Every structure is written in C-alpha cells, then in structure tokens.
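Human: My hope is that you can spare some time for a protein that puzzles me. I am handing you a single protein, as its sequence and its fold in token form. Could you go through the record with me and say what the backbone is doing? Take your time, and here it is.
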Amino acid sequence: MRSAAETDLPDGVSLEALREVLEAYPVDVAILFGSHATGSAHSGSDFDVAVSFRNLEPTEAEYNAAFFGLSADLSETLESADVDLVDVRRCSPALAESIFDRGLLLIGEHRDVTTLRRERTTGELPTRSPRERLEEAIDKIDAHLENVAVPATENSSRDR
C-alpha cells in the first residue's frame, strides 16, 4: 500500500488537515481509496475513506458519535458533502481487498495495515445465505420479544 506522504494527494486535499481531523478521533488506520486515491477523480467524485477505530466496537455507545462525528468533520475539511466513511473492520472482504490494494495510507503503520488485511481478506468469515441470515435475525427478534404480550410470530413453528 502506498503512503499518502509518498504520493501527491488530489488537488485541494491537505494531508496535514486530514491527519489533524483523523487524529482527533480514536483511529488507528485511515486509508483514502476510490477515485481520489487512484487519480481518476472528476468533479462529481466522492471521497472514500476507510478507518479502523482503536478499541471501539459498533455495539458501544461511543461508536456512533465517533463514526458520524468523523464523517461530518471530514466533510467540512474536504469541503464536500460527498464523503463516504467506511469502517474497514465491518466492510465486505471484497471491498477490504480493494481498499488495501489501491488505497493511500493517511495515518497508521504499515504493520497494522498488514494485520488488518490478513484479518479482513483471508476468507475466514463464515458465509451464510441471505435466508440463513434472515432466519437468524428473526430468531433474535423472537427471543427479544419473548416476554412481550403480543408475540412477533404466532408460534415457534412458523412458515418461512
């Protein structure tokens, strides 16, 4: 992966300003990817930024504040409402592979990127069909609503 410090960023993008924003949040790794990283951006291109948060999981209350706050601050810094922020730990393995192959490292260490890449692209994630994922979600909802007066389904042997 190329480092943004070793590469020219797109016109109007200040590496120092981006780093300042990113370092204000619990971000271990930040990668610019997509057309702005490959040099194929045009006037309508959005900014794609992948991050890995340090010790912050989506189940924690602080996650949304950090994620959406960072997205808003990046939009302000880049002077664009078209900023797509991606948590690299939560995206698909295929997208992660593309990010690691073509992205520009904004902050973080190459060894951390290597570890993330191995975690996200080795294919070790379980693959389930959409139907299996839906059934699991329904089962979780049913379990959650078990003590509610009106059940989510008529009975436990439902037609799916």
